[in-house]
Amino acid sequence: MRFSIIIPVFNAEGTLRRCLESIMNQTSDNYEVILINDGSTDRTLEVALEVAELYAQKHSNMKIYSFENAGVSVARQRGIFYASGDYIIFVDADDTINQDLLRELQKATDENPDIVRFKCELVGDNPSKNHDRYNFDTTTAYTGVEVLKEWSLSGRRYAVYWLYAFKTSILKKISFPTIKCYEDVAVIPIIILSAFSVVTINFVGYYYTYNSNGSLTNKHGLAEERSRAFDFAFACKYAIEYFRKNLSEKDFEFFYRDYKNRLQEKYKSLPDSLQKELKDLFEV
Fold it and tell me: Around Cβ 264, how many Cβ atoms within 10 Å?
């Protein structure tokens, strides 16, 4: 089996059906769907079972696992544990994918790269922002170090799970920090740096929807912002420590400066009261 699509989900009864239908209607059938129900208290599980039954004759390889709530990081790791495909794709429960995504990825993975990056469309995005900030045009194969440098210099964002097809064997070797927010800031660069071959395809495969009012990164209030600040600082320092131990001195200096800048930018965005409280936390 070529692909495992992992969906960590918590209380997504309003969006899950649309998400799953975009996956079950793929024009390629060389995949499995692994849904990790992370202790949902609404009708999420019922919706998942209804969709699985509806598509049972067309595609019976949908697996649903339910656990007590442990957070999205643990949910992803559980999905990785159960995955049997050659590559893993992560999909958030309030997003959808292009019906031809797996067909395009099938072609891209025939050459056996470690990671394939595709493009996304930001649905409901802030009109004042750069709508292509997650997209990159090159199709040349790079090592993980080479491509991460290029993406960092371009200013395009890359530290999200849903932009890639990752080789499963790489993900199963990665250690994941247990934090509520910004785990991707820590882990995505580590995954990419572990790759010998990374390719980018010029195909819009993912539709990211800005409607997650209940998500951790959209919650407001001083306590929530303090918690996010701690997680962001932890994530950056987690990545920096990996860079220190695993990269050449020259490459370490490059990524150290990049992540130090990220810390400084985040610190400047905090309210004055939190800047005074957390000054030492954001020093590296």
Answer: 13
Strand order across the beta sheet in which 31-38 lies: 62-67, 31-38, 3-9, 87-90, 164-167, 115-123, 198-209, 96-97
Q: Is 129 helix (H, G, I), strand (E, B) or coil?
A: coil
CB distance 123 to 117 below 8 Å: no
The tokens of 164 are what? 């890639």
Residue 89, both tokens: 């794709």
The amino acid at 12: A
User: Where does residue 195 rank: exposed (0-12), middle (13-18), buried (19+ CB within 10 A)?
Assistant: buried
Whole-angstrom Cα distance, residue 232 to residue 189? 14
At residue 220, the pLDDT reads 66
Q: What is the pTM of this model?
A: 0.93
Per the document, the length of the chain is: 284
Question: Which residues make beta-bridge pairs with 8?
Answer: 36
Which residues are 200's β-sheet partners? 117
Beta bridge partners of 206: 97, 120
* Structure tokens belonging to residue 148: 């991460």
Longest dimension (CA), the chain: 59
- Amino acid making up residue 147: V
User: For the chain, which residues make up each domain, given as ranges?
Assistant: 3-209, 220-282
- In DSSP notation, 44-102 reads HHHHHHHHHHHTTTT---EEEEEE----HHHHHHHHHHH--SSEEEE--TT-EE-TTHH
What CATH code is assigned to 3-209?
Answer: 3.90.550.10
Burial code of 30-45, b = ≥16 C-beta within 10 A, e = fewer? Answer: ebbbbbbbbebeeebb
Give the β-pairing of 198-209 and 96-97: antiparallel
Condensed to tens digits (0 to 9), the pLDDT of residues 218-264 reads 556 899 999 999 999 999 999 999 999 999 999 999 999 999 999 99
